[in-house]
Amino acid sequence: MRIARFSLDGTVGFGVLEGDANTEGGPVLDIIKGHPFAEFERSGQKIPLDKVRLLSPTLPSKVVAIGRNYAEHARELGQEVPDTPVAFFKPSTSVAGPGDPVGYPAFSSEVHHEAELAVVIGRMCSQVPRERVHEVVLGYTCANDLTARDIQRSEAQWARAKGFDGSCPLGPWVETEVDPSDLAVMCTVNGEQRQLGRTSEMIRSVEDLIVHITEAMTLLPGDVVLTGTPAGVGPVNVGDEVAVTIEGIGTLTNKVVKRG
C-alpha cells in the first residue's frame, strides 16, 4: 500500500495510491478518513493524482539519521566504519516534500546529495525488541540527506551541516509492504547517475537501527529514521535537479535553487 500526503484547494489530507501511469485514467488517490497512524478507512472518494500537490508524506517530530552505515561511503570520506551506529538529528524544519525547491544555504559552498532509505514510524515506541520492530514501522520512503560538507568538516557538531532548512526532502509517499533488506538505492543529478547501491550493503539493518535508537529515546508516530547512504555522494549546485529512486517505492525529485 502506498500512502501519500497531499494538498488540494488549501486542504491537507492522506490518500492511498491506486493504479499507475499505465492505468486507464492514470493513478488516483483514495482519500483516507483521518490519518494513517491508526486504524483507518478509505472514504471511496477518489482524486486523480495529477490534480493534487504531493507533500512530504509525514511531518516528523524528529528525524534520527545514521551516518557511515555503508562501508564504501565511509571509505570515500576517508573514515573508518564506526564500532557503533553514528546517530544525529535533522530538525522538523529540514523536511521538504517531493517537487519542493531546496534552497542552497548561503553559509556553504559545498552541498552534497545523499540518497537514503527512510523508515517511517507508525506508533509510539521505546525499547523495541528486534522481533517487534516490524510492529512499529508504518513503511518506507525515499530521502535525500543533503549535507553542507564543508561545514561538516569545519564544525564539531553537525547541526548546521545536516539541519539547514530543506536539507531533508522526503517522498513521494510511504510504501507499507516493501521488504527493506535488499533494495536498490539510486541518485541522479540532472539525469546523470551518481549513486547506486543496495540496502543489503548496510552495515546495520533497519532492525539493528530501531533497536539501537529506541534504547535511548521514544519515537513518535510519523518520526523518520534515515538509514545511511551508499557511496557516490557528491556536490550539487543551484539549478540542479536531484532525484532519489528506491526500488519498490518510487522517485523523489527536488530542484536546488538560490536561497532567498
Automatic annotation (TrEMBL):
An annotated Gene Ontology molecular function? metal ion binding
What InterPro entries does this protein's entry cite? Fumarylacetoacetase-like_C, Fumarylacetoacetase_C_sf, Rv2993c-like_N
**Stretches of the chain forming a coiled coil according to its record:** none
Keyword set for this entry?
A: Hydrolase, Metal-binding
One Pfam family from the UniProt entry?
Rv2993c-like_N
Q: Name one GO biological process term.
A: carboxylic acid metabolic process
Domain Rv2993c-like N-terminal, first and last residues per copy:
1-57
Keyword hit for Repeat = no
Annotated Fumarylacetoacetase-like C-terminal domain ranges read 62-257
User: What name does this protein carry?
Assistant: Fumarylacetoacetate hydrolase family protein
Species, as recorded: Streptomyces tardus
